[in-house]
Amino acid sequence: MVTTRTPAEPTVDVVVVGAGFAGLYALYRFRAQGLSVRVYEAGSDVGGTWYWNRYPGARCDVESVDYSYSFSEDLQQEWDWTEKYASQPEILSYVRHVADRFDLRRDIRFDTRVLTAHLDEDTMRWTVESDRETVTARYCVFATGALSTAMTPNIPGLELFAGETHHTGHWPHGGVELEGRRVGVIGTGSSGIQSIPIVAEQADHVFVFQRSANYSVPAGNTAIDPETRTRVKATYAERRRLSRESGGGSPYNAYPTKTMDTPPDERRAAFEARWQLGGVLFSKTFPDQTIDPVANDEAKAFVEAKIREIVENQEVAERLIPKDHPIGTKRICTDSDYYRTFNKDNVTLVDLRDAPIDSIDANGVLTTAGRYDLDVLIFATGFDAMTGSLDRIDIRGRGAVALKNRWADGPRSYLGLGVDGFPNMFIVTGPGSPSVLANMVLGAEQHVDWIADCLAYLDEHGCVAIEAMPRAVDDWVAECNERAAATLFPIANSWYLGTNIPGKPRVFMPFIGGFGVYGSICAEVATAGYKGFRVI
Ligand code: N01
After folding, report:
1. What is the rounded average pLDDT of the residues 222-234?
2. Pairing of strands 371-373, 364-367
3. How far is the CA of 351 from the centre of ligand 1 (A)?
4. Closest Cα to residue 2, out of 528, 470, 458?
5. Of 72, 115, 209, 461, which has the fewest CB atoms closer than 10 Å, so is most exposed?
6. HSE-up of 210 (CA within 13 Å, CB side)?
7. Strand pairing partners for 283?
8. Could you tell me the distance, in angstroms and rounded to a whole number, from the CA of residue 512 to the centre of ligand 1?
9. Which pLDDT score is estimated for 7?
């Protein structure tokens, strides 16, 4: 209920939390329609994920020409990506360029962490408190990232370690001296698999502490030659159109036939072609690969044969082959010579399934089978994904109910965008949206455009608030669960389901129905006057 009292003017129209790809575009877009915006960013510069993740080998696994903003044709045409898969430094300089080119920095407060965001039900405004200031806003938009809260496991004795410890997600800006040192890497997800080959080039010895093996395919990174660049730029509009209609936000389709409907020779050739091309799209070689167990087994067998072929020591090869999940149901990793790295004399695979980590002491890591003396210990142990960055902020909606408590059994939203009981609050690329299953940059643009149009609609209609209705949230959660249950994804214990965080409810968090499908649903909701939302 909105009271009749005239509220004090809010400080700004919109507070945006986070200045990564999503937050920057939100600032640009909201400002363009005349709204006043303030962005808070905990880091000292723009970039989000690409500001923090500076570990050796950090690189995007979506093609650079696709993992970039589409909102400005001029920007698209003037920026020259140098590699098919951009490295972290190149992406960070791109994001910095965007911030400068569109004069975004003046509305961003850096080195500022948002602590609380509380709704005033009388005014329908949000009071947002950071470690620097408190502001009020008509709308609060969380662009806090899906993989932004690093997780370091609570291993007994960690604080005793006399060497250096680093998390890949908080890598020092000046880099880490690895030359001639004994380095331990805990974790073999995307971050570990990307960094281990480079760490092994520098370190005296690398101990890879592997709990679960992951599937990895060659990244297939190459320089972008001038002809390719010209061709991409000439056809950008079509490329973006196809991306928006696609399942994953990139302009590619799976093979036209299902795995087992494809003759064996042709099937193998298709896998081989994808393997040679490299990249995460291997997991979508055939359309049924993460749906049909038989199809999945074919893809697995292909990759497992590759691992056995590359790794010389067959005992090590067997340990590097995952035993616990269908291929592609955890984010498939991409690498540059990961498996070959295990042929080096200075690399040791420590299989924690045989002997788990027991503790850490001043000199290194102790497993139940022995000790590993180290100078540097790298945690490539991942993130409290999708909800972690929201949980860190005390977000309170109607009745002062905390979002964290509301989501105690798993995140519940309508379209991933809105939550009942939290009017005028929006989440960008959060749980309930395609998010991490699609191109995050196009995902952020699609969400921000939807929110911006929604805010314009509210102003045009003299409304003060919009709020997801409980029934719409229930239905959306059910739809997300049904779609996930129709795939093989829920079989795997992964950060998609929160299983990497002790005590987190096991819920498949992203919307798995495809980027294009999701975009159409969001557009239909808006066209129908924000069906499923209550507009006040
Ligand atoms: O994190 P992860 P990540 N003892 O959670 C292990 C994106 N990304 O940072 O599986 C021992 O995948 C854990 O073992 P287990 C991408 O979406 C993209 O690597 O829990 N080990 C696992 O091996 C990716 O999926 C890019 O048994 C422990 C690892 O740590 C996501 O970010 C690059 C442990 C964590 O793997 C996250 O990737 C990097 C413990 N106590 C990241 N706790 C690209 O674009 C955890 N582990 C290429």
Report:
1. 97
2. antiparallel
3. 16
4. 458
5. 461
6. 26
7. none
8. 20
9. 53
Beta bridge partners of 223: 83
Cβ-Cβ contacts under 8 Å for 62 (sequence gap 6 or more): 85, 249, 250, 280, 439, 440, 441
Is 249 or 10 the better-scoring residue by pLDDT?
A: 249
153 lines ligand 1 (CB under 6 A): yes
Decide: 212 in ligand 1 pocket, CB within 6 A: yes
Q: What amino acid is encoded at 235 in this protein?
A: T
ipTM: 0.99
Report whether pLDDT(265) > 80.
Answer: yes
406 three-class SS: helix
HEC per residue, 440-499: HHHHHHHHHHHHHHHHHHHHHCCCCCEEECHHHHHHHHHHHHHHHHCCCHHHCCCHHHCC
Distance of CA 454 to the CA centre of its chain: 25
Residue indicated by tokens 């719409």: 472
Buried residues in 188-198 as b, exposed as e (16+ CB within 10 A): bbbbbbbbbbb
- Closest ligand 1 atom to 154 CA: 41
Does pLDDT of 5 surpass 70?
no
Nearest to 51 by CA among 131, 150, 117: 150
The string of pLDDT tens digits covering residues 18-46 is 999 999 999 999 999 999 999 999 999 99
| R_g over Cα of the chain | 23
Kindly state the tokens that stand for 517: 């499908």
- DSSP code per residue over 323-390: -SS-TTSSPPEEESSHHHHTTSTTEEEEETTTS-EEEE-SSEEEESS-EEE-SEEEE---B-TTTHHH
Tokens of 39: 């962005």
Match 């952020």 to its residue by tokens: 444
